[in-house]
Each structure stands twice: as structure tokens, then as C-alpha cells.
User: What shape does this take?
Amino acid sequence: MANCGRLILFSGPSGVGKDTLLDVLFEKRPLLRHSVSVTTRNKRDSEVEGKDYYFISVEKFNEMLKADEILEYNKYGKHFYGTPKKPIDKWLKEGVDVILKIDVHGFENVKKMYSDKCISIFILPPSLEVLEQRLRMRGTETAEDFIKRMEIAVEELKKCEEYDYRVINDSLEKAAEEILTILDK
Ligand code: 5GP
Assistant: This one.
């Protein structure tokens, strides 16, 4: 890897395929670290505790906030999502690259704190229609959550220009290659 000790801020609307892309990236770049967030939302069937998220209660989330264990957090829809502080500090000290899968609010906050260490990548769908189709096919959301996620997606897409790089996830292989090229710069 060309450089070390960077925070790679990875955002994109719900359903755009961030997790699948990340699986490819971690397979191809085993030295990359993944900052596993805590969330108060329910686990999806396909998700693994400790790999995708740490699924915690609102009470536990508030305890972590009080104890200053959360680097940044946001309420997305009805649920809280936060980045645990300790692993990030440790990895930055060790000089390894860390991927943070966070929403646009998280991106703005982390960039303020670590501007010189950040590389930001926004994953775009080929179109809003395709995004809607992908999210619908995933079938993990209630009708209400689905509408909310699409509304948030429209707002998030307006912020994509603030990121260092934009990658369209049309073909998984092509998008992954593009991201690897960015990381190796
Ligand atoms: P999902 O419920 O689809 O897994 O995630 C919803 C949104 O929350 C996504 O945009 C995801 O990137 C974002 N997210 C996940 N973890 C964090 C986090 O720790 N902080 C922030 N700010 N956003 C997060």
C-alpha cells in the first residue's frame, strides 16, 4: 500500500452496495482495517455481529456517549449510528489505513477532526431508479423505512461533490478497481 495511517471515509446512499464493495476491498487489501460502528437498529439476517456492526441498545449507546467512547455519531432514520473511538486512535497510532462507512454527517464531522488524514469516497448509483430498485430488492426495510431511506438518499446525493472522489457502482468489479486505484495513489 502506498500510504498508511489514513482515514478512508466511505459514504453513499442506502442500497448503493457499499457493503458488497467493502467485502471486495477487504479481500484484496487485507491490511485495511474496518471501523465497525455501533448501531441501535436491529440486525438484518445477512449481518454478523462485530463484522457489520455492534448492535447495541439505546441505553448502551447513551452510556458510550457519556463515557466519551464515540468519535462521531448520527441519527439516521429512527436509529443511532456511531464510530467507536478507541480502535481509530489505536490504528492511527500504528499507522494503518482505516475504512469508515459513515453517512454524510459523519463525513463532515470526521473531516473537521482529521482533515489532513482523510480520503473521502462517495459511491453513486447509476441512477435514482436503479437505487430504488436495489433497495426494494434487498427487502430489508419496512415500507415506511424504505420511503425514509429514499428521501435521505436524495439529500445525500446532493453532497457528493464535497467528497474527494465519486465512484459509480454500476459494475461491482469496475467500481472496486476504481476504489483500489484511488487507495493506491
Ligand atoms: P444502514 O442501516 O443501511 O446499515 O446504515 C444507514 C446509514 O448509516 C448509512 O449511510 C451508513 O453509512 C451510516 N452509518 C453507519 N455507521 C455509521 C457511523 O458510525 N456513523 C455515521 N455517521 N453514519 C454511519
Summary: The mean pLDDT is 94. The longest strand covers residues 70-76. The CA atoms of residues 40 and 80 lie 5 Å apart.
